[in-house]
Amino acid sequence: MSLISASEVISIAYVTELDPTMIKDEVIQTAELKYIKPVLTSALYDDVVASPGDYSTLITSYIKPCLAFFVKYAMINQQLLETAQYTPGADPSLSPALVEISTAVLLPKDHRRDTMKEVLSIAFTKQILLQDFVISQEYSLYSAPVSKRVSGFRITSTS
To answer: Disulfide-capable partner of 23 in 6, 77, 121, 141 (CB 3.0 to 4.6 Å)?
Structure first.
């Protein structure tokens, strides 16, 4: 089970309406493991997943906003390509709110690139806020990283 639903991703990170079934659980889980778990560290992450009620502020105010934008970032290319073949299924009222084939195909690559950079920038900003909050709360299960990056190189303490 993920810390955010597809509907929550849409309400937090999207401006336009989107069918929640277009955001697969696998994409949410991958983004969660790739971008949230390393910030929380394994022990705290496992406890948050096991006991979400104990971390309501952390989840609602920091994890969900961060995760929503990382999921959106992960989905942009797929959504642009796949909405061209999307059929609304049982709810035809959704179709006017979806991206049309002409928009998906004719979107200039510079616009797509700029959009992806902006969404990623928002996600990383929210990730910094998440990390700052986790550190400030002094969670007993949180363990600060023992290495840091300097000029792109990972420096690990040997003591």
So the answer is: 6
